Amino acid sequence: MSFSTPLLAADHRAGVVYEIRDGSRRVAVADSWLAEHAGFLRLPAGAPGRWAFADDRGGALVVGDADSVRRIPIAIPAEHLACDATGRHVVVTTGLGMNAEPWSDVVSVVDIASDASARFRVRTGEPGVVIAPDQVSGEPTIVLRHREPGAVEALPLTAALEVGPHAPVLRGPLLDDLAPDGHGEVMDPASGIVGIASSRGLERFVVDAGAPRALGIVPWPAEGRAYYLRLTGDDRRATGIVRGGPAAPGSWPDWTNTFVEIDLASGASRTVPLPPGLAFRFALAAGVAAIAVIHPDGDVVIRIDREDACISRITPVPAMTHPPRAGVMPWDGVDGRAAQRRSIAIDPRTGTIAVTSGGDGTILLLDDDGDISTITLPTPLDEGGHLLWAGDDERIDDLVGR
To answer: Domain 32-143+153-176 falls in which CATH fold?
Structure first.
């Protein structure tokens, strides 16, 4: 099966990133442990790089393109990363890492063009981050999403770039009208609207004259809530999977799933019901979405026609050797083994869907007819790894790591 652009596959538990093209593979980045929660950041056209991720062991932002890979120091453990519209500046927040309680309040801001970085302190608690244009001045502004208590904070990007040594404290205007359980952010660079997922719905904000301003909450159009959001590149809608059903994590086979799209400006939404089970991250391309749903009765990959808001294809895929068990939290390991799940990506040109089999070291490729071929890697892809189709020929509006 031919690829239009290289497919990157990160085994973040083994500390290696592979580049796969036309059935062949090579090590693209060695000895780098991709921060699983922050994921890959695809940089926009004209940026001094094509993609980036946080090395959560070495403490570096790894920036790559077709010819080279660079490393720029950052604070870890990395939790979220996002870039500005030019792709030159990347902000990385810190989280728990291997610790039970939030402990780090350090944020890094990176200038990729000069290979320089600076660090400052904000508030402990795994903040989410986007970089949004100010509605008045147009100046890029770092928007931090805080939890427990919930708040939105605005920091001028220029102020972050100019901080001195020794990780000084940096504070900005704060808006505390946000649910305390916010998780998942998008930002439309055209309108500057920020969307944050919470139990109350999609909470929307802009930066207005340097301060956050609330635009209102769009209730989830299905039972439950979303935790992970992406922005579509063709019509700039916030997309997510709303999870409902039993609250107990061990009851994950009975969780309900609904794919939702929400217009950030108007709040208009459309939905596509999905099968029950564990639906983790999903993939987007122009007009389509792809979702892997894990279930004890069989895993499937679902292709959604976004224009008609319907499922266009459901493809059963071989089970993982050690899938999550009913009655056990799906993100916890079993019998000393890593928790296994799937990562998914779509080739923006051909529509080929790639989905991993966590723990088995394989990537399944599904073509437009639903036919499946397999690529085998020399590492197990524990926890499902991460995938990124690294082409620079598609429109990129989603400036947040995934």
So the answer is: Methylamine Dehydrogenase; Chain H (2.130.10)
